[in-house]
Write a structure and sequence with these properties.
3-stranded parallel beta sheet, 38% helix
């Protein structure tokens, strides 16, 4: 009896256990349920595709791109003009050269052939014997063409017209000297002290007129030099100037002949230092046309300046003041001496 009851109870417990296991393993669970349906978000636009990168260059091209750019072609030299020049077709100044006058180098192939610095179609405009009342007309012609010259004034003429030589200097031209009295230094009667006085007083007169040291540039009157004079100039580091093209303006019958003399010789030689005289009326009249002829012929002006200016000698400065019998410095202001009474 007890065994039968025990078996029944065991059967009931077993059945309950089997039912529980089945319930827990077969019943669906909430976390296993299918997800609820949700409205999908609108798709965001894709970012724009990146710009295509250029294909890499080969090594040669990359190296070339890292190197310095090729220099730009050098333009042809243009004439050097004054800032205030109103003439767009002016002759101008092609280039400026600075001369180291140490030892007294010479220029102008008629006598001095050491330094051939001018190239084809280049000229240097030089003027002797001024200053004179004709000099301002020469200055105007040069200014109208925005070009420059080299002046060799005579000391005595400078003492007559210091204000004119001052105009030459103020206009930017180079000012040397041509002796004190235009004495020919190759004369047999010329002593060495006289030769030195002619040279030094000429430079002292220029300094007094322009108020500044002159260029150490010198031209012998009549182009007549001696070995003694050459040696003295070299000891003072003063350059000597001769000529390549002589205008012969002091022998010319008129302006046209001056022009023809210069152009005929220049076209034959092709370049050179041109000698003219600013005290010659024919030269002053001829110069505007002559400068235009130079321009039309393709000639270019070279301006010459000195590396260092000349220091005049005090004894000759004093000698000049004494000879002129005027004080070196005015003791009274000009307004107390000269008064305008009508204008």
């Amino acid at each position: 009896m007890r065994n039968a009851l025990g078996l029944m109870l065991a059967s009931v417990v077993t059945a309950v256990l089997i039912t529980g296991v089945w319930f827990w393993t077969s019943a669906p669970r909430a976390d296993a349920a299918p997800p609820q349906t949700m409205a999908a978000r609108k798709a965001e636009p894709l970012p724009a595709p990146a710009a295509a990168k250029p294909a890499p260059k080969d090594d040669v091209e990359v190296t070339a791109s890292l190197s310095k750019p090729a220099p730009a072609p050098v333009p042809a030299p243009q004439p050097i003009r004054q800032a205030s020049c109103a003439n767009p077709d002016a002759l101008g100044v092609s280039r400026m050269v600075v001369i180291d006058t140490t030892g007294g180098p010479g220029f102008g192939f008629l006598q001095y052939k050491q330094f051939d610095f001018l190239t084809d179609k280049e000229v240097v405009l030089t003027f002797d014997d001024g200053p004179w009342p004709t000099t301002p007309a020469v200055l105007k012609a040069l200014a109208d063409e925005c070009t420059k010259g080299l002046f060799f004034p005579v000391g005595k003429h400078t003492s007559y017209h210091p204000e004119i030589l001052k105009q030459v200097y103020t206009a930017g031209h180079t000012v040397g000297s041509h002796t004190w009295s235009h004495a020919h230094l190759d004369s047999k009667k010329m002593t060495e002290p006289q030769m030195k006085e002619e040279i030094e007083k000429g430079f002292s007169a220029v300094k007094m007129a322009i108020g500044a040291a002159p260029a150490p540039f010198f031209r012998f009157p009549g182009l007549g030099h001696t070995q003694v004079a050459l040696g003295y100039l070299a000891s003072r580091n003063i350059s000597m100037f001769s000529v390549d093209v002589d205008s012969n303006d002091f022998r010319s019958s008129g302006p046209d002949q001056v022009i023809n003399n210069v152009m005929t010789k220049l076209d034959k030689q092709g370049k050179g230092v041109i000698l003219m005289h600013d005290l010659q009326k024919h030269t002053a009249t001829a110069l505007p046309t002559l400068l235009r002829r130079l321009k039309a012929g393709g000639y270019k002006v070279v301006q010459m300046k000195a590396k260092e200016q000349l220091e005049t000698l005090p004894e000759y400065d004093a000698m000049l003041v004494k000879d002129q019998k005027v004080p070196a410095v005015a003791s009274r202001p000009i307004s107390s001496v000269v008064q305008t009474v009508t204008q």
